[in-house]
Design brief:
CATH class of the largest domain in chain A: Mainly Alpha
Distance between the termini of chain A: 50 Å
Strand order of the largest sheet of chain A: 1-3-2
Order of helices and strands of chain A: HEHHEEHHHHHH
Radius of gyration of chain A: 20 Å
Mean pLDDT of chain A: 89
Structural class of chain A: mainly alpha
Shape of chain A: globular
Largest interface: A-B, 27 and 27 residues
CATH superfamily of the largest domain in chain A: GntR ligand-binding domain-like
Oligomer: homodimer
CATH architecture of the largest domain in chain A: Up-down Bundle
Helix content of chain A: 55-70%
Number of strands of chain A: 3
DNA sequence: TTCTGAAAATTGTGATCACAGTTTGCGGTG
DNA sequence: CACCGCAAACTGTGATCACAATTTTCAGAA
């Protein structure tokens, strides 16, 4: 293979997403969906080969994921791995979520309009459907969308980013709930209560509903993690 | 760091810190110290030239800083800049700190020993010295060290990382306090109270002392930011 | 069979180049 | 003097290579 013939056609890429962003999203989803199991090692080249890109954009994406603590880097040999699920990590992540997310819901309440209420009801219906069908990926996506459709209305960029980072880190934990207790373990959530509170701009009601929703979900995660020791 | 000549001699690097980590630390300090003013644009090559390294490790460091929101990236033209100091950002950052940091102090309380108490007193003395001398950089460093010497004892890696990220983002705000009200504006802190509480393993006392310390500091930052509009 | 040790493969890191957008600078035109 | 237009410089992105440090593999000795 001569250096000149290493074609590898380039992309216009002006409007489209950069490759490293696509790679980031791909790895992110793989982590949340549990396609890359916690504890196992990964490498830049193996990820690159799997995604059909050069190691360069993978390197960028991985740096970002490491900074967000969705990937861990062994300080001794500098090798990459997926953080493993420990009770201590879950506990801290839970506590942090339990502070930021209700806060975001409360901040969103004043800015909620009829269109958002409708969208939230549609999204929540999608959550219920996914639950009935036992479609794990669809559930994870829909559940995420419900929460962040609310949080985005809070007009609090910094807190929103914190919440995003926490979901990314807790994604693998959510997966183990399905793995161990099945979809039946998650039939109930507090989305309806949250939407009702938001509809009438009841900030404290929204805060309480989201707090209860998280609290119950996280109890199940804790039980699943402890059962799997 | 040696100038990046085309000779490109390599380092041993086994035990020593990687170049991109040194670059990260250098930019980090420059941001916190306000040597790179908020709002202005930077570029990979200009930073690389300034630090005497190739653009590659700068790219890695910048990715990390962007993920930590210490640098911002313009989505339109993808150019880098230092986030500007807005009241909304300060408010959210403050609220987040006011939750995590007292929590870390409370968690640390049970694990405090005599050696740590001594170290904290030494560090706090350094804070007072820097204040008397009006040495801004020394104050920022010493103040950071006092807080994180406590937080590291909490045995809460996730929350500790959150606190670190928040300090990085709020660093430039701290600087404006000195810029506008001078070192005299910060003569009082609640470090002594915090250390006293920690010494007797009083978690709630430590929580309150740290909360008060942050609260007062952030009031000054808010005033400085508002005055500078 | 089990241990040993050297070769081979794999890893993260850094340098350098190519390329396509964007911004900047500067000349000429009205 | 003000405005336009184009070229040069600069920007982030991606590819490819080189290198040192691991880790893995496997043949040979006990």
């Amino acid at each position: 293979m001569s250096p000149a013939s290493t074609g590898s056609q380039r992309r216009p890429l002006a409007d489209s997403l950069a490759v490293h962003d696509q790679v980031y999203e791909a790895i992110r989803q793989a982590l949340i969906n549990g396609r890359i199991a916690p504890g196992v090692g990964v490498s830049l080249r193996s990820l690159a080969a799997e995604l059909g890109v050069s190691p360069m954009p993978v390197r960028d994406a991985v740096r970002r994921l490491v900074a967000e603590r969705a990937l861990a880097i062994n300080p001794a040999n500098k090798r990459l791995s997926v953080p493993s699920l420990t009770a201590a990590r879950l506990e801290q992540l839970s506590q942090a979520r339990l502070w930021v997310e209700p806060e975001l819901a409360a901040r969103a309440a004043p800015h909620v309009d009829a269109a958002l209420v409708k969208r939230l009801r549609d999204l929540d219906a999608a959550v219920d459907d996914a639950l009935k069908l036992g479609d794990v990926d669809a559930y994870m996506t829909a559940n995420h969308d419900v929460h962040f459709a609310i949080y985005e209305r809070a007009d609090a960029e910094v807190l929103l980013a914190m919440a995003g980072g926490l979901w990314l880190q807790i994604g693998p934990f959510m997966r183990v709930v399905f793995g161990r207790v099945g979809a039946d373990g998650l039939v109930a959530d507090r989305h309806v209560e949250a939407v009702e509170a938001l509809k009438v701009h009841d900030a404290e009601g929204a805060r309480r509903a989201i707090a209860a929703d998280l609290s119950e979900g996280m109890d199940k995660m804790r039980a699943a993690v402890e059962a799997g020791r």
